């Protein structure tokens, strides 16, 4: 089986048109990554072409965007994401994200942790305030729909995706939090209950340019009717259709 020959469950019908089928979205695998196949599947369902990237490689393979999926890279033996930050692939991603081309990058769960350790996003992730692993369907509010990864949503829209983490508490100093709020860089916020103690109920943030987004919950687990939250949820698919629309629109 090739990396893109992913098994499908149920009917396979990409959400986007043929115009998006040429978009190549890289999905990075580290030792301990768990959700790379799920992320690649979400890309396919959105209408893009997933390209599997290995952490030890130094070529991005001419991809148009990158997803850094969840898991426990290097076992999170030091700090979550701290070792993965030094992988050769991350050096390429950091350079491309900060270049004039502004490569779109999405970090999910452990991927969010890697983005903070890489200083592509500010702040850090620590253990949940209740010190336990948590897995649940989680309601989020889209605070900023002007990023490369949230354009498919309406500002203020509430969506439900899967949350599963142990080191999910987002922390930053007050001046950083104030700046994120003032600059509209809080992309997503927890609604109803803060599941991990994240400062100001923050579930996801972006960089200043809006091409880099990190979030703790897992949108790739809510992309198919009958297999997402409440067995009907597809609320997470918008993250992947958003970036494809961004790429086609030439706003990368």
Structure description:
The longest helix is centred in the last third of the chain and has 12 residues, at about 235-250. Helices cover about 20% and strands about 25% of the residues. It is globular and about 40 Å long. Helix 1 (about 35-45) packs across helix 5. Strand 3 (about 65-70), helix 2 and strand 4 form a beta-alpha-beta unit. The protein is α/β, with parallel strands linked by helices. Residues about 1-10 have low confidence and may be disordered. It has a nine-stranded mixed sheet with strand order 2-1-3-4-11-10-9-6-7, sandwiched between helices. Strands 5-8 form a two-stranded antiparallel ribbon.
In percent, how much strand structure appears in the residues? 15-25%
CA gyration radius, whole angstroms: 16 Å
**Helix proportion:** 10-25%
Q: What's the total count of β strands?
A: 11
Main β-sheet: number of strands, strand sense, barrel status? 9 strands, mixed
Mass-distribution shape = globular
Oligomer: single chain
Number of helices: 5
Roughly what is the average pLDDT, rounded to an integer? 91
> Terminal Cα separation, in Å?
31 Å
Order of helix and strand elements from N to C terminus: EHEEHEHEEEEHEEEH
Low-confidence stretches: 1-12
Spatial ordering of strands, largest sheet: 2-1-3-4-11-10-9-6-7
Structural class: alpha/beta
